[in-house]
Amino acid sequence: QADLVESGGGMVQPGGSLRLSCLASGFTFSSSAMSWIRMATGKGLEWVSSIDGIKTYYADSVKGRFTISRDNAKNTLFLQMNSLKPEDTALYYCAEDGGWEHNGHWTSRTGDWGGGTQVTVSS
Fold first, then answer.
1. How many whole angstroms separate alpha carbon 88 and alpha carbon 102?
2. How far are the Cα atoms of 8, 9, 10, 102 from residue 99, in angstroms, in the given order?
3. What is the pLDDT of residues 70-93, one digit of tens each?
4. Structural contact between residues 79 and 110, judged by C-beta atoms closer than 8 angstroms
5. What's residue 1's pLDDT?
């Protein structure tokens, strides 16, 4: 069973940056697509970004500001978040993703999730 542990969240001012990490174990990380998903208070789940091999995919709301990456040697997934906005405030989860690409867009089908890390963007 997959074990995913997120870290790196915190409070930052608008325009600031954070780098989230997700340490994975219990499955073959290097051959798995991975995703970041977030949930803001009072809102539903929002898919943020996915990485499949070297291909990356982003929600329009974060495109150009967030960068997903991975270090397969360390079984770790990252999300670099720049130019943060108050609307980015949410609990961020990483997940193993069994989805696929269609016409350049990612269709997410997440499996196991981590416990999340809180990101708060506020002045």
1. 26
2. 25, 26, 29, 10
3. 999 999 999 999 999 999 999 999
4. no
5. 82
Q: How many residues does the chain have?
A: 123
**32: which DSSP letter?**
S
Residue 30 three-state SS: helix
pLDDT tens, residue by residue, 90-99: 999 999 998 8
**Mean of pLDDT over the chain:** 96
**Two tokens, residue 38:** 């977030």
Would you state the structure tokens that stand for residue 5, as one six-digit string?
């542990």
Residues facing 78 on adjacent strands:
21, 69
Q: What share of the chain is helix, strand, coil (3-state, %, to 5)?
A: 5, 55, 35
- Give me the percent of the chain exceeding a pLDDT of 90: 89
**What is the rounded CA–CA span in Å between residue 3 and residue 90?**
21
Q: Are the beta carbons of 114 and 36 closer than 8 angstroms?
A: no
Mean pLDDT of 38-63: 95
CB atoms under 10 Å from CB of 79, counted, come to: 26
